[in-house]
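This section describes the prediction task in plain terms. A model, or a person checking by hand, is given the sequence of a single protein chain and must write out its three-dimensional structure as a string of tokens. No templates, partner chains or ligands are provided. The sample shown here is typical of the held-out split.
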Amino acid sequence: MSSFNHTVIEEFRANAGQVGGPFEGSELILLTTTGARSGKPHTVPLGFAREDGGGGGGELFVVASAAGADRHPAWYHNLLARPLVEVETGTQTYEAVAVPAQGARRDELFARIVRAEPGYGEYQARTRRVIPVVALQRTHEIPAREGGIAGKLLDVHGWLRAQLALVRELAREEPQGAGAASLGLQLRQHCLAFCHSLEFHHRSEDAGLFPYLEQQHPHMREFFLRVGAEHRVIARLQEELVRALDAPGAGFSERVERMSRELEAHLDGEEAQLLPVLRALEA
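The expected answer:
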């Protein structure tokens, strides 16, 4: 991270999103991506536009201008590899899936942004690359049903179910014609966000939660062996999904449907066995 960005980020966080100097009077967000190679968090301050064009709600968009450089900024490459990002507005922090706009949708958004901030048009004039416009689609929020470890498990499972439901919906639309590229990229980004989150969740269970619970409850060893085997089956389905993203029309929807069946059965079974145990730990 450059020293300039570091200073802006510190000022942003210390003053609820207000920054002086060259950014005084401008609205910024902090976008945290995961390094495509390093796997480490990477935070940058960025200007943004809103879907509604006003100061209220609406989807946020950021522009990968890199001040008109001929290469995309690092944060853009990161979000293509790892679409799940963190957004800080100064008053709130939330998770989002980053989805670059394409085709006519990208052109429409970029033209609107340039009308509000002409500098982006100057950046585009400096380079032959098409400067990306990225939608930051806030992830589905799962209302917390309870606290503690049991509540966290339910929150994660709820997020996975919601994200997979969205992937299923996108896959069923079978993109055709002019909208194919845009929908295809939406499908790719949401599918990757789901797959990466699922992989992290199962790895955390296998390496941390399950060994701990087995120590406390040795009689559950067969259950943990069975759940570990289910994790391996789901991991294979997940790998197949990621590989199929290059050609989503080739049986992709069927793969998503199979993942849905396997995952729903797995999550239901896990909750039935684990929730009473987790609640008892905190009683």
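For orientation: The first strand starts at residue 29 and ends at 34.
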